[in-house]
Design brief:
By secondary structure, this protein is of the alpha/beta class. Helices cover 40% and strands 22% of the residues. The chain has helices at 16-28, 51-57, 66-83, 101-110, 151-161, 179-198; strands at 3-9, 34-40, 87-93, 117-120, 123-126, 132-138, 166-172. The strands form 2 sheets. Strands 2-1-3-6-7 form a 5-stranded parallel beta sheet, with helices on both faces. Strands 4-5 form a two-stranded antiparallel sheet. β6 (132-138), α5 and β7 form a beta-alpha-beta unit. The longest helix is centred in the last third of the chain and has 20 residues, at 179-198. It is globular, with a radius of gyration of 18 Å. The termini are close together.
Length: 200
């Protein structure tokens, strides 16, 4: 049985989060039981979500105008891609204590009420089942476990909203705090990634 992995990258630089993603993919190279799809959210940049696109989702598919069909197709295609994979890997730099806006634009298309989650009397219920995620987080400073790390909870909450609650996180931190710390942090992150890849 083939495990299908979707890797999302979101760095505007040729940076550390991309290196973590490449290291992850390298561990799986040549494995017949794993198929990898990569989506570069910088190269395939999505526009910020606007009202016309949001409104197109509310119109039944058979009643949409040509423009509404084109707008809704963005979200539909990204959700179909997510649903077609078993594991989601997010390679994420930390920009101003948050996720890149390009990744937020991707989440804005896949977090759709009635499609990937629904509201119930007991609160939201995720509709994306049987999947897990990995976060490969690269940071210039050291934030994990502190109040300044709003990024990790944000990502886990968005994933949890659609039903992905099994999430592994790899941190490479202090990358802008000197070469020695950079090399040590990247080495530890690569080792953690190798362990995750082995368990796929």
């Amino acid at each position: 049985m083939t495990t299908r992995v979707l890797v999302l990258t979101s760095s505007i630089l040729d940076g550390n989060s991309l290196a973590l993603a490449e290291h992850f993919k390298a561990q799986l190279a040549g494995r017949d039981d794993v198929a990898i799809t990569t989506r570069n959210l910088i190269a395939d940049e999505l526009p910020h979500l606007g009202l016309p696109e949001l409104s197109s989702w509310q119109v039944p598919a058979g009643e949409r105008t040509t423009e509404q069909r084109e707008l809704a197709a963005r979200s539909d295609a990204l959700i179909d891609e997510l649903q077609a994979h078993d594991v989601l890997v997010l390679a994420v730099p930390l920009y101003n204590l948050g996720i890149p806006s390009q990744m937020k634009a991707w989440f804005d298309r896949i977090l759709r009420a009635g499609v990937t989650f629904r509201y119930t009397e007991n609160g939201p219920q995720g509709l994306v089942e049987g999947k897990r995620a990995m976060i490969l987080a690269a940071r210039g400073g050291q934030y994990a476990g502190t109040e300044l790390d709003s990024q990790t909870p944000h990502l886990k909450h968005m994933l949890g909203l659609i039903g992905i609650t099994e999430v592994d996180t790899v941190f490479a931190e202090g990358l802008a705090m000197g070469e020695e710390l950079h090399e040590a942090a990247m080495g530890e992150a690569r080792q953690a990634i190798e362990g995750l890849a082995e368990r796929l």
